[in-house]
Design goal:
Layout (H helix, E strand, L loop, with lengths): L3 E3 L2 E3 L3 E7 L2 E11 L2 H19 L3 H17 L1 H12 L3 H22 L5 E4 L5 E9 L2 E5 L7 H12 L3 E5 L5 H13 L7 E3 L4 H10 L5 E5 L2 H13 L3 E5 L4 E5 L5 H13 L9 E7 H16 L19 H16 L3 E4 L13 E4 L6 H4 L6 E7 L2 H9 L3 E2 L1 E5 L3 H10 L4 E4 L15 E2 L2 E2 L9 H4 E9 L2
Length: 474
């Protein structure tokens, strides 16, 4: 049984989670401990005890640790990638790519630990010096989702430690395997006891405990919008710093002048790769009338020819949905789209072992349909026909979410207009809405995100606090 890590020691919980392969649910990957309330409280106490020492540690020590962790992850990328495939269902190239991204993130923030800088500002008063510095926030609770079980933990843990914070990490209950391997790597690389703690198990138990504890100074959460809203209420009452990354219903506009091959490639990737289980997935394809029919025909041919199967096989292009519950939810939205009047192409459950679903297009959809507005988080995309760029932008922005958006066009003017008017935190031109670099900020607007951006140098805004100091020379 894989155990929790608290104060540098492996600790069993009172119950366990069975981690199973969504491509073959009879395959038991391993058994993972579920933390109790006492375990969570012990992890918070350990992080508090370790904070003063860790926050005052030389940045070189923190940089060396993060660099060593990144090196170890990259050395084990094939092994970890195969585990990721087995517990989440991504294809092997996607899983290895995600693991490499995790290693790159740790190495990037190893450098950032040495660039934890401030400012010297001239005072308006004589003989007074003003210096502005950044300090660690304190104990940070990190809550991560199942769809990127090693990359998202990495992009939270690495900056938290780089800037001198201590961590209580709660991974997704559905995919504890990669999180546990990552925890083992941190432990084996010499992360001091209490600096990093991991508690696995129920989000409904652990999340509220972290959010309500007076000894946790900040919460970073990636997951569903309803859970994020609940955390916001709790953290608000407790005056706790909060960072939320939640849902998306991301638009991809295809204009009449678009290169059809580029547009279809971008939409195929954005909507269906990773089985559509990305918060940045292209789930609303907004297509200008002149290219609409050719686009739908071409995308349908590409979509229906995707090779769906065992994600460990080299020929597979799309793996299973991550769980039976998720598959059932996806199929419910396929039925709903049909009831709402869309023409549904594909979307059926496949008659084989595992949680496999054919990708789906909802053609002739309208933007007021629930199947167009709700985040499905599966391989389903609505196609909406529009007359012009202005209408396309209006439809694209008509959503409660604002994470990622895209446009396919050969017009620099149209691309420029869209980049300026899109109500999203990230904008892509002739690229899939999903797929971002690790050294630049990640995040959105509206109900998609709350608080400072993640990743890149912008991560310092959440994981540090600003201090202004005045000194009179005497």
């Amino acid at each position: 049984m894989k155990q929790n890590l608290i104060a540098g020691k492996w600790v069993a919980g009172s119950d366990v989670t069975e981690n199973r392969n969504p491509a073959n649910p009879d395959e038991l990957i391993d058994i993972y401990a579920r933390a109790t309330q006492a375990d969570v409280e012990a992890a918070i106490a350990a992080a508090n005890e370790a904070f003063d020492r860790w926050s005052q540690t030389s940045p070189q020590v923190r940089a060396d640790l993060l660099d060593a962790i990144g090196t170890r992850i990259l050395a084990r990328k094939d092994e970890i990638g195969r585990l990721l495939v087995r517990e989440e269902g991504k294809t092997l190239p996607e899983a290895i790519g995600e693991t490499v991204r995790a290693g790159q993130l740790f190495k990037f923030f190893a450098g950032e630990a040495l660039r934890f800088s401030g400012d010297l500002v001239a005072s308006i008063r004589p003989d007074v010096d003003v210096d502005v510095t950044r300090e660690a926030v304190g104990v940070v609770g990190l809550i991560t989702p199942w769809n990127f079980p090693i990359a998202i933990p990495a992009w939270k843990i690495a900056p938290a430690l780089a800037y001198g914070n201590t961590v209580v990490f709660k991974p997704a209950d559905l995919t504890p395997g990669c999180a546990h391997v990552l925890t083992e790597i941190l432990h084996d690389c010499g992360c001091p006891p209490g600096v990093f703690n991991m508690v696995m198990g129920s989000g409904s138990l652990i999340g509220p405990l972290l959010a309500s504890s007076p000894d946790v100074d900040a919460i970073s959460f990636t997951g569903s919008e309803p859970v994020g809203a609940g955390l916001a209420e709790t953290c608000g009452r407790n005056r706790k710093k909060l960072q939320l990354e939640m849902g998306g219903k991301n638009p991809m506009i295809v204009l009449d002048d678009a290169n059809l091959d580029i547009a279809v490639d971008a939409c195929l990737n954005g909507a269906f790769f990773s089985t559509g289980q990305r918060c940045t997935a292209s789930s609303r394809l907004i297509v200008q009338a002149g290219i609409h029919d050719r686009f739908v025909d071409s995308l349908t041919k590409r979509m229906t020819s995707l090779r769906i199967g065992d994600p460990l096989e080299d020929s597979t292009q799309m793996g299973p949905v991550a769980s039976l519950k998720q598959l059932q939810g996806n199929l419910g939205y396929v039925d709903l789209a049909r009831q709402e009047g869309a023409e549904v192409i594909g979307g059926e459950a496949l008659d084989r072992t595992g949680y496999f679903q054919a990708p789906a297009l909802f053609v002739n959809a309208t933007n007021d349909m629930r199947s167009t507005q709700d985040e499905i988080f599966g391989p389903c995309a609505s196609v909406l026909k529009v007359a012009c760029l202005d209408e396309a932008i209006s439809v694209a922005n008509d959503t409660v979410f604002g994470l990622s958006s895209g446009i396919c066009t050969t017009s620099l003017k149209a691309a420029r207009t869209f980049k300026r008017r899109s109500q999203a935190g990230m904008v892509m031109v002739n690229l899939p809405t999903a797929g971002v670099d690790y050294h630049v900020p990640f995040g959105g607007r509206k109900r998609s995100s709350f608080g400072p951006r993640e990743q890149g140098r912008y991560a310092v805004e959440f994981y540090s606090s600003v201090k202004t100091a005045y000194t009179l020379a005497v």
